[in-house]
């Protein structure tokens, strides 16, 4: 079995020539650093080729042997879980939990601030390509992430809407309530997909796109629940949006 040392490139000895100076040699990584380097490069690899990409090709791109890669990740699924943690779990900001639950602020403002911050974190080509590839391949990443979206975003939105509208708390939310949340979340997500994956022209004012989506969601929620909360009166339309009005 290869060791970390096996993966380091070394110049072949040439008769009559002194060995390269130590200062010019690549820094040896600690096991923790090497593991993180493997995960970073695996993220880029799977975002490029999808989850059909094998560990043999990944090891080749890493410049290491496949047995060495298996020392850190015994199976491909182990590596995929690390990719999932880095791309999805680690991008979740715990402050968003506090923001969504802060009833001292109108829900309309909380959702605007949340979705602006959330999309700043996920609207990258790498994030979206891995999400799409995992769905096409049937990798569990999508199912894991859908659970996060429902539990930490959509259920909270429904709960907070009910609280602000003076409605009784109902847990868990009904399927109809969650589907309304998915319409909001999915619409915002697809805006990022068109921009970063399809690379087609979109409205560049992301904050305005989110604001419009929230207006539609809150109006729809008022119709569904038979009780509404303030929509436009809780939002001051920024002056720079004037050019977007049609």
Topology (elements, then pairings):
Elements: H1 4-7, H2 31-49, H3 55-62, H4 66-72, H5 76-87, H6 94-100, H7 107-122, H8 125-137, H9 141-164, H10 175-196, H11 206-225
Helix pairs in contact: 2-5, 2-8, 7-11, 9-10, 10-11
Outline, from the CA principal axes? elongated
Order of SSEs, N→C?
HHHHHHHHHHH
**Number of helical runs?**
11
Integer tally of domains = 2
- Please identify the oligomeric state: single chain
First-residue to last-residue Cα separation: 66 Å
Q: State the total count of DSSP E strands.
A: 0
Mean pLDDT: 83
Unreliable stretches (pLDDT < 50, length at least 5) are 1-24, 232-236, 239-243
C-alpha-based Rg, rounded: 24 Å
Helix content: 55-70%
Sheet with the most strands, sense and barrel status? none
Query: What is the beta-strand fraction?
Result: under 5%
Structural class: mainly alpha
Describe the protein.
With 246 residues, this protein is mainly α. It folds into two domains: 30-87, Arc Repressor Mutant, subunit A (Orthogonal Bundle), CATH 1.10.10; 92-237. The chain contains eleven helices and no strands. The radius of gyration is 24 Å and the shape is elongated. Residues 1-24, 232-236 and 239-243 have low confidence and may be disordered.
């Amino acid at each position: 079995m290869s060791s970390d040392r096996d993966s380091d490139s070394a110049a072949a000895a040439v008769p009559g020539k002194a060995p390269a100076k130590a200062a010019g040699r690549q820094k040896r990584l600690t096991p923790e650093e090497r593991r993180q380097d493997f995960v970073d490069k695996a993220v880029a690899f799977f975002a490029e080729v999808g989850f059909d990409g094998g560990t043999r090709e990944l090891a080749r791109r890493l410049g290491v042997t496949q047995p060495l890669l298996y020392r850190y990740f015994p199976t491909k699924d182990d590596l995929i879980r690390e990719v999932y943690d880095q791309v999805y779990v680690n991008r979740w900001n715990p402050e968003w939990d506090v923001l969504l639950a802060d009833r001292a602020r109108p829900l309309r403002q909380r959702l605007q601030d949340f979705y602006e911050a959330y999309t700043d974190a996920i609207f990258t080509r790498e994030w979206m390509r891995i999400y799409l590839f995992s769905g096409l391949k049937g990798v569990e990443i999508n199912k894991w992430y859908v659970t996060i979206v429902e539990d930490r975003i959509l259920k909270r939105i429904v709960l907070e809407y009910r609280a602000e509208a003076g409605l009784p708390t109902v847990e868990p939310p009904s399927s109809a309530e969650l589907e309304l949340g998915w319409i909001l979340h999915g619409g915002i997500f697809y805006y990022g997909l068109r921009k970063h994956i399809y690379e087609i022209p979109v409205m560049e004012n992301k904050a305005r796109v989110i604001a419009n989506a929230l207006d539609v969601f809150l109006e729809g929620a008022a119709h569904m629940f038979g009780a509404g909360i303030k929509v436009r009166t809780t939002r001051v339309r920024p002056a720079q949006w004037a050019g977007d009005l049609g």
